[in-house]
Design brief:
Elements lengths: L10 H4 L3 H7 L3 E2 L2 E2 L1 H7 L2 H7 L5 E6 L5 E7 L3 H15 L2 E7 L2 E6 L3 H14 L8 E6 L2 E7 L21 H9 L9 H11 L6 E4 L3 E7 L4 H12 L6 H13 L2 E2 H8 L3 H13 L3 E4 L6 E4 L1 H7 L2 H6 L5 H15 L4 H8 L3 H13 L3 E4 L6 E4 L1 H7 L8
Parallel strand pairs: 3-7
Antiparallel strand pairs: 1-2, 3-4, 5-6, 7-8, 8-10, 9-10, 11-13, 12-13, 14-15
Length: 395
């Protein structure tokens, strides 16, 4: 039990005898032991009688459909956590990253801290009316943790990072908090995000329907990102979880704007824009464009470090004439481009694309077809003529 407790001071709780502990955690009511008590510290006979659906199954897959290791854990939550920790540490790899100056960072596939938070969330928020197990699956480049029952209380994969805590089993959640297994209420998700990103992993991914919630924890390490985060911490330049999400998005995508940042941060656009501006002011991002259409990319030195020089060179903004020629060439070949297509080609913001395409329209090089979401550009008379010049000669 103590090995899996949080490091805060829980000495008073730990010194209680079993009956006093159950009473302190309010797990005995009117002389009756609650289901939460059985799940937390119950013996196998009690679990088999009162909570036969409680089971955690660990599986290691060698191929997408074949596994070579399986463990079925049916003990109390405390016993399951101890056993699962031992199994994961047996099967997860641990690597090192050169941090410079004869220093090395030790990077596990997934830390037990992140895995424990994910498993605890699955156990606390699962639907205990369903006769199904919690699964912990070790697959190529990820760990998948799935639990019976969908999200509760309006939580979705698109707001899970920001939504106020909703507990399907509040007594169990409160008992785990009091026992020191969680640091404070409602922060498990952002702790998972932050732990993964500091280790150079990608963002966790949630999927859900009415019957289950699945969480994917990536195990592949982006070594330069892990080294960068560690160096910033040593230099006293604190990066919080929102900073890490935006910067990792810039590494993955190259360009980030208020809309893509809002999606990743699960925040309103205005708040996401404030975060982008903050990172620009601290020298991490460069801005292109003005107003709502501003896009951001990593500062040159940071992009060289995290994306590589070749990728950085390709992202250097083109001048207006070069952008215009590129758009005309691609439009001539494809015959149709949307505003989003032109943004990808040019690195321009939405409004910059509108201004550019208006200039080309006035010059007869492009035409705008449709309105709203269906609007797109096609070659204009001059661009069509340039692509198919008339042959000279007499009849």
């Amino acid at each position: 039990m103590r090995r899996n407790c949080d490091r805060r001071d829980t000495g008073q709780v730990r010194r209680l005898d079993p009956e006093a502990l159950l009473d302190h955690l309010e797990l005995v009511r009117d002389g009756e032991v609650t289901l939460a008590a059985v799940l937390l510290v119950g013996r196998s006979t009690a679990l088999a009688r009162w909570a036969p659906q409680h089971e955690v199954i660990f599986v290691r897959y060698r191929t997408p459909t074949k596994y070579d290791v399986r463990h079925d854990f049916r003990g109390s939550i405390l016993a399951v956590l101890d056993a699962l920790e031992r199994v994961l540490k047996t099967h997860l790899l641990v690597g090192t990253v050169d941090a410079g100056g004869f220093r090395e960072l030790t990077i596990p596939d997934v830390s037990w801290f992140a895995a424990r938070e994910a498993v605890l969330n699955a156990l606390v928020h699962r639907d205990y009316f369903l006769r199904q197990a919690v699964y912990v699956e070790l697959r190529e480049q990820r760990i998948e943790i799935s639990s019976p029952g969908g999200f509760a209380g309006g939580v979705t994969p698109d707001n899970v990072l920001r939504h106020p805590p909703v507990r399907r089993n509040p007594l169990l959640a409160r008992a785990l908090q009091e026992a020191g297994f969680v640091n404070r209420a409602g922060v498990g998700v952002d702790r998972i995000y932050e732990e993964l990103l500091r280790l150079g992993k990608g963002l966790p991914k949630y999927e859900a329907d009415e019957g289950h919630v699945r969480l994917r924890l990536p195990t592949k390490t982006h070594a330069p990102f892990a080294r960068f985060v560690a160096e910033e911490a040593r230099a006293g330049r604190a990066l919080d979880v929102d900073d890490l999400i935006v910067l990792r998005s810039a590494v993955d995508r190259g360009l980030v704007d208020r809309w893509s940042a809002a999606e990743r941060l699960q925040l309103p656009e205005e708040q996401a824009a404030d975060r982008l501006v903050s990172l620009r002011e601290r020298g991490y991002l460069l801005a292109r464009g003005r107003g709502r259409g501003t896009s951001y990319r990593l500062a040159r030195h940071l992009s060289d470090l995290l994306r590589g020089r070749d990728a950085t060179d390709l992202e250097v903004p083109l001048d207006d004439e070069a952008v215009s020629l590129r758009v005309q060439a691609v439009l001539g070949e494809r015959g149709r481009l949307t505003n989003t297509d032109v943004r990808r080609l040019s690195g321009c913001s939405r409004m910059e694309v509108v201004r550019l395409m208006n200039v080309l329209r006035e010059g007869g090089l492009v035409e705008l077809v449709g309105r709203g979401r269906g609007a797109h550009y096609v070659p204009g008379p001059k661009l069509r003529a340039a692509a198919h010049p008339r042959r000279s000669g007499k009849k």
